[in-house]
Amino acid sequence: MSNAPSWGTTPPAEVWHAVVNSAEYAARRDETGSVVALAECGHDARLLAIAGIRLLAGVIAEGVPADEMRHGVVELAARNGATDLTVTNALETVAMAEFLAIDDMKALGELCTGSQLSAFDHAVMACALAGQAIAAVADDPAGVFDRLRAQDGGAA
Length: 156
What we know:
mainly alpha, 8 helices, globular
């Protein structure tokens, strides 16, 4: 039996706080702060990925269309010359969050199994995308992040 985290795992509150802090840095376009918030957490990168993708799935469930995110990723990459790896990471991460939002665990598992990117890569991207989406649609992004932090990600 494995002790590896799974999609049914509830990450500790510290992981959720790190993810929300990372997303908030991303919302303010502070890429370094966003990555550092995750790196300094000290927990398994797989937990960070689970929490980050859950956050992004919540953003999708709240009405930010995954198709718009994908379109934005491709448009930004074309304009700014992002690497193929960055685009792949973004598109995979959006797909993972979308599958999680619609509870398609089979497709989510297949995507995770086939990914060549690290859990930390997905965590960073999920937080970046969630933070930027929240900044784009929320009237009070800081308030949204405060409320998210208060939820502790469902941790006991």
